[in-house]
Specification:
Length: 529
């Protein structure tokens, strides 16, 4: 069995491996919890950071995006380095880089250099996360045998995914003391992760191959450019030449990278894994599911603040309904995977998620948080059922037990889909809400130009409040809500319906992809190199 010692007797083996596996899983959960929380915690503290350091609205947006951009660009590299130099070693390196960068972010000086300082160390924080996460996932895969891996990874994804909802809650609470604490809080978490990793005595295995530097540069450049284009589409506009230069240029570089990777002896990404039909289906299901999974945090939170007049902390509690279903279903999905394979769990999850988002969309105009919780929970359950089975099945099919490489691929797919989902759904919400609110304000006597400008401010709530004030503050958004009241809240809710219907469609497409899964199961450990 991979990742365990071999005592003389069966009972001794069971006794020796159980504590090690549990410690390893706990260590990896503590490590990756930081990466999940940091995806959302900074957005809550953005107004405080902007006010204290005097950042521009666009500069604050770059502070948020720098982390996500580096994360997307370097995931594949992190997975490959994990294979070449050892999963445990790269996980510890990533953790150290992440926590040092966090401390430096919290120590940002006041003055003209503050914005540059934060952007640089948010980017290195993202690089640390890109090294840490695929290595941590590979550790869990290597330590647990195939027949127990589904439940272990269900717990891994269930708990770590649910931590994304803690970000806004923790951010709101810590920011009341100082915004710098949202970065410093990573220090004790990292210490626990490192101590547990050492105690777990995780076995190390390296692959004697060289690093494909050219492939790493091409993947990072292509992913970085295209994700940058999607991230900035709302600010630059979809008609901007710069937007499409980044997106198309990045995709062209990725196509060139595919050609290069097929010719090199030791590629960064072994594309032969896509010859496995099941792996390709797993990747497609993850892509379409992630179009909804990550964006729903942002869109549901903004909807709650604008349409339900909720505070940021109340909006975070609203998301807990989603994670209630997600956490419970992730455990069931893992059990189904271990007993019956990935196909049944993915089909159930995709179908449940599509139905959940569809019903949730219909309830958005009720403007009642209480009435929506069952549908939020159903939507979360759908994602919970499919996430761990699709990810685990993909990793189980890795070539030559190249766990780091394959986890790097699957996480790159997930992050790329999240960037696409945020950009596309953000554009839909902006245009629909602007049109509806403009009509409402014109009906109340505002001149067309003023009505459109005010409607634009409300729609911009989705991008992190670039006017410096959220819907519960004193900016144009809050003033518009005070002036037009329930009418604008309803307009925004109706615009969000389009987004949630889009998420339902994404899950429906994922369901169609899941039907193409051959249904075969991986029941034995892949051969070790």
């Amino acid at each position: 069995m991979v990742g365990t010692s071999t005592p003389s007797g069966p009972s001794g083996a069971a006794t020796a491996q159980a504590p090690r596996q549990k410690l390893a899983l706990a260590a990896m959960l503590f490590a990756v919890s930081m990466t999940f929380i940091d995806q959302t915690i900074v957005s809550i503290a953005a107004p405080s950071i902007t006010d204290e350091l005097g950042l521009s609205a666009s500069g604050m947006q770059w502070v948020v995006n720098a982390y996500l951009l580096a994360l997307a660009a370097f995931f594949a590299l992190g997975g490959r380095l994990s294979d070449l130099f050892g999963h445990r070693r790269i996980m510890l390196l990533g953790t150290l880089l992440f926590v040092v960068s966090s401390v430096l972010c919290g120590c940002a000086p006041a003055g003209d250099f503050a914005q540059t300082w934060l952007i640089i160390f948010r980017a290195t924080q993202g690089l640390g996360a890109a090294l840490m996460f695929p290595a941590a996932l590979a550790v869990v895969v290597a330590v647990f045998p195939v027949d127990r891996r589904g439940r272990a990874l269900a717990l891994f994804f269930g708990l770590s995914g649910a931590l994304t909802a803690i970000g806004p809650l923790l951010g709101g609470w810590l920011t009341q003391w100082t915004w710098r604490a949202i970065f410093w809080v990573n220090v004790p978490v990292a210490v626990v992760a490192i101590v547990l990793t050492v105690l777990a005595r995780i076995p190390e295995k390296r692959r004697p191959e060289r690093l494909d530097v050219v492939g790493a540069v091409l993947v990072a450049t292509g992913m970085g450019l295209s994700v940058l284009g999607f991230q900035q589409a709302s600010a630059w506009g979809w008609s901007s030449v710069t937007t499409w230069a980044c997106i198309v240029g990045g995709l062209v570089i990725l196509v060139l990278c595919i050609g290069y990777e097929r010719r090199t002896a030791h590629p960064l990404v072994n594309l032969d894994v896509f010859r496995d039909r099941a792996f390709t289906v797993d990747s497609l299901v993850l892509f379409f599911a992630m179009l909804a999974f990550v964006p729903v945090f942002f869109f549901a939170s903004v909807y709650a603040q604008v349409s339900l007049s909720a505070s940021p902390n109340q909006a975070a509690l609203f998301l807990l309904y989603f994670f209630l279903g997600f956490g419970l279903a992730s455990q069931w999905g893992g059990k189904i995977l271990d007993k019956r394979g990935a196909r049944p769990a993915m089909k159930i999850g995709c179908a449940l998620g599509a139905v959940g988002f569809f019903l949730w969309a219909q309830k958005l105009t009720d403007l009642s948080m209480h009435d929506q919780w069952p549908y939020a929970a159903i939507s979360g359950a759908g994602i919970g059922f499919l996430l761990a089975p699709a990810s685990t099945d993909a990793v189980n099919r890795s070539i030559g037990a190249s766990y780091g490489e394959v986890t790097g691929i699957t996480q790159t797919v997930r992050n790329y889909a999240a960037a696409v989902g945020m950009a596309v759904f953000g554009t839909v919400l902006t245009h629909v809400s602007t049109d509806r609110i403009t009509s409402t304000l014109q009906e109340r006597g505002l001149p067309p130009a003023e009505a459109e400008a005010t409607a634009g401010h409300v729609a911009e709530a989705i991008t992190g409040h670039p006017d410096g004030q959220g819907p519960t503050g004193d900016g144009p958004v809050a003033k518009a809500l005070q002036g037009a009241g329930d009418a604008i809240r309803m307009d925004f809710a109706e615009a969000n319906q389009w987004v949630f219907y889009g998420m339902a469609i994404a899950l429906a497409i994922a369901f169609l992809c899941a039907l193409a899964h051959p249904g075969t199961r991986v029941t034995e450990q892949p051969p070790q190199d």
